[in-house]
Amino acid sequence: MSPYQNKKVLLASMHQKELAIQEPFEEIVGCRLEVIDNFNTDQFGTFSGEVERVLTAYETLKQKAIVAAEQYNYDYVISSEGAFGPHPNYLLANSDTEMLLFYDRVNDYFISDYEISMETNLADYEFDQPNHDYSKFLDKVMFPSHALILKAENIVIAKGIKDRATLDQLVAENIHKYGKLKLETDMRAMNNPSRMKVISLLANKLAKRVISHCKSCDTPGFGITSLSGYLLCELCGLPTKIKKYREHKCIKCDYLEKEVIDLSKQFADPKYCDYCNP
Ligand SMILES: [Zn+2]
Ligand SMILES: [Zn+2]
Q1: pLDDT tens, 210-220?
Q2: How close is the Cα of 232 to the center of ligand 1, in Å?
Q3: Confidence of residue 175 (pLDDT cuts 50, 70, 90)
Q4: Inside any domain, residue 2
Q5: Which residues surround ligand 1, an ion (CB under 5 A)?
Q6: ipTM
Q7: How far is the C-alpha of 156 from the C-alpha of 145, rounded, in Å?
Q8: Segment (H or E) for 28
Q9: Which parts of the sequence belong to the DUF6671 domain (predicted)?
Q10: If you measure from the C-alpha of residue 203 to the centroid of ligand 2, how many angstroms do you get, rounded to a whole number?
Q11: Ligand 1 center–CA 275 separation, angstroms
């Protein structure tokens, strides 16, 4: 049975992320999720560039969880964090990196996981003409199912814009005043269904990890931490960039399990070999 069965867990997050996180945690972990309406996670930085982010994503996650646990006196807290930008492996594509952390204050466990997805509408668009037609941009970023932010230089004029009439009116009111306006995708979860979907995937993954125990010391949170090893090139036998193992690790002891990523592949295709295909 899950050690967190029926435990009260605080979701230290804004922007209705419970829509993606509550169900997997309640169903898989068996805990009860509680959401604090006014927990201001913006103090740790926001996605529209208003507060400079000083901590790394993982440190921010931990800080959010620790602060929330103390502030609201919970033993268990879930915190979340998202970052948007060029994909780490495919630099020409944008990506959404979501991180979730489960904090067990009683045992001082931090169990985290992440998900990187290219399913993101992250984009911006500048224009300086009063009657400029930005319809194509709106289609591309899936407006109005996905909301927009209107900015002038670094001033936020409006966030969470979800209908065309409001957008057009705001543009008309501000284009002469500022000369140049910028539309940005609103990445806050409740305004961005693509992002909500990634958070939901991740919440399922983390929930499963929380109930996965180390075979050696029984600590929860056992799971994949990294990839290791290299497949050798089928042609020349040299190591390629293709990883061979997934490493599952304990968050507390040194216990480690290596799992072959793809059992059907003993060697790598020479196209991934720096020697055969430089
Ligand atoms: Zn080779
Ligand atoms: Zn262990």
Answers
A1: 999 999 999 99
A2: 8
A3: very high
A4: no
A5: 233, 235-236, 270, 273, 275-276
A6: 0.84
A7: 20
A8: none
A9: 66-278
A10: 23
A11: 5
Ligand 1: centre distance to CA 235 (Å)? 5
pLDDT at 130: 87
Tell me what pLDDT residue 44 has: 66
Q: Which of 85-89, 136-140, 148-152 shows the lowest mean pLDDT across its residues?
A: 85-89
Residues 140 and 98 in one domain: no
Give the structural domain span for 252.
219-278
> Do residues 85 and 51 both lie within one domain?
yes
Q: How far is the CA of 92 from the centre of ligand 1 (A)?
A: 27
Q: Looking at the CA of 237, name the nearest ligand.
A: 1
What is the pLDDT confidence band of residue 45, given thresholds at 50, 70 and 90? low
Closest ligand to Cα 277: 1
Would you say residue 272 lies in a domain?
yes
Tens digit of pLDDT for each residue in 82-103?
Answer: 888 887 777 788 999 999 999 9
Q: Are residues 245 and 205 in the same domain?
A: no
Looking at the structure, tell me whether residues 198 and 165 fall in a common domain.
no
How many whole angstroms from 256 Cα to the centroid of ligand 2? 8
Mean pLDDT throughout 238-253? Answer: 93
How far is the CA of 277 from the CAs of 97, 191, 215, 229, 240, in angstroms?
30, 44, 42, 20, 10
Is residue 3 situated within a structural domain? no
| Interval between CA 213 and ligand 2 midpoint (Å) | 8
Contact yes or no for 62/70 (Cβ under 8 A): no
Total domains in the chain come to: 3
Residue 142, C-beta contacts closer than 8 angstroms, at least 6 positions apart:
121, 193, 194
Tell me, what amino acid is at 75? D
How far apart are the CA of 251 and the centre of ligand 1, in A? 37
CB atoms within 10 A of CB 259: 11
- 3-state secondary structure at position 212: coil
Q: How far is the CA of 253 from the centre of ligand 2 (A)?
A: 4
